[in-house]
Amino acid sequence: MHFWLMSGRHGPAIRNLGMAEGTAHRVARAVAIIRSDYAHPLRIEHLAEAAGMSPSTFHQHFRSVTTLSPLQFQKQLRLIEARRMMLSEGASASNAAYAVGYESVPQFTREYGRMFGASPVRDIKIAQAKVHASA
Predict the structure, then answer these.
(1) Are 51 and 77 in contact (CB under 8 A)?
(2) Total domain count, the chain
(3) Same structural domain for residues 83 and 97?
(4) What is the pLDDT of residues 15-67, one digit of tens each?
(5) Who contacts 30 (Cβ-Cβ below 8 Å, separation ≥6)?
(6) Distance of CA 91 to CAs 4, 117, 120, 124, 132, Å?
(7) Is the domain of 79 the same as that of 106?
(8) Domain boundaries, position 124
């Protein structure tokens, strides 16, 4: 079984996971930085340096590990956190947008709708209605 996994098309990726300083671990360092600082502008050079890679190599490996670019990853984190703030803390869409680093509420609303399929206000109303219906 191990031989089959290691010699298959995903073998290099699987071997890389086991290496102490493999690509996945190096990208994980950058992911940790993005997660802790998602509300601030993203500096690719800083992330690449943390991963010990050039910016172009970093982009390539980041996408191969996460299936997203660093900016897409940050955007998803921002939107998920904003949704959490609106649902659990009762934050308004504009307050949540600014809290997670958006400078424009219309931009936040567009990206939120693309990710969750509804505007922030509508999505939260739907989620709250589901909670009240199940209670």
Answers:
(1) no
(2) 2
(3) yes
(4) 555 554 678 999 999 999 999 999 999 999 999 999 999 999 999 999 999 99
(5) 47, 48, 50, 51, 58, 62, 70
(6) 51, 19, 11, 10, 19
(7) yes
(8) 73-134
Distances 128 to 42, 49, 109, 123, 134 between C-alpha atoms, Å: 33, 43, 19, 9, 10
Structure tokens at 21: 């300083």
Dihedral angle sign, alpha carbons of residues 34, 36, 39, 43 = negative
Residues 11 and 63 in one domain: yes
pLDDT reported for residue 77: 97
Q: What's the one-letter identity of residue 58?
A: F
Residue recorded with tokens 């940790």: 32
Distance CA 19, CA 112 (A): 37
Q: Which of these three, 67, 89, 112, is where a domain ends?
A: 67
